[in-house]
Amino acid sequence: MAGSPNSNLRGFNYAVQTLLKQPAQFLPHLTIPTFTHLPENLGPHLINSSSPSNQATTTTTTQEKKQQLRTPSIRALVLDKDNTLCPPKTTTFPPKILDKLAALRNSPTSPFNLTKNPQSILIVSNRAGSHPNYDSEVASLEKQLSHLQIPVFRLPAGTEKKPFCGDEVVKWFREREVISSPNEIAVVGDRLGTDVIMSGMMGSWSVWCKEGVFEVGEEGKPERNLLEKMEVWIEKYLREKKGLKAPAPRGWE
């Protein structure tokens, strides 16, 4: 486990460096309001949403055209906890979130069906599972999700938090023969600076839950903090003003 339960200064610094050097890596492949809007069949949505409607005019290369003809086959989900599945710093699942998880696990057409692909969903948090201080959170989450068999990732000793634990997450799925390639994974979370950047480091696809746990106007929805406001502004600026789009995962040729 990492030594400090709270600090992720290196992650913040890495996000800033990425924004300065490779700003497109800051952009998600798909943006949805909340986790409840996640499509069951993700692949077509990841491709169709990667080109912003208001982007500047660019020349589409032959390679890009080939990539657009392919559809990702997503066999695994990495889910953030805080402000994606639960309100921040809690283990309380809103009923609609639990309903969505149950649908993904029980639908006969879902790639994440419990019977057909039982180890296809993993919660990866920078809180629960990242330090022994949060072991009670892990126990609470897994107890509530025991009927759906959704585990919490335990950060291996000596491994840093998101976005730096991507290789270990990929290894977790490989060892269980869920995937053959990282581009069969979609990372779903509310933070561009951790969840989206980690997906790029993994060679996976990213889904940004822009509104967090609560829909716009929903009771209990907190105001965005400063970092969250900055991420929303930066994403819009890069997409609309700079004409950038999320790059396909490495190896997606």
UniProtKB/TrEMBL annotation:
**Family annotation (InterPro entries):** HAD-like_sf, HAD_sf, PGP_Pase
Polar residues compositional bias: what residue ranges? 47-56
Q: Which SUPFAM superfamilies match?
A: HAD-like
The name this protein goes by in its record: Uncharacterized protein
| Species classification | Eukaryota, Fungi, Dikarya, Ascomycota, Pezizomycotina
Q: Which stretches does the entry tag as region Disordered?
A: 43-70
Superkingdom of the source species? Eukaryota
- Gene Ontology MF, one: phosphatidylglycerophosphatase activity
Q: Gene3D superfamilies annotated for this entry?
A: HAD superfamily/HAD-like
Among Pfam families, the record links this protein to: PGP_phosphatase
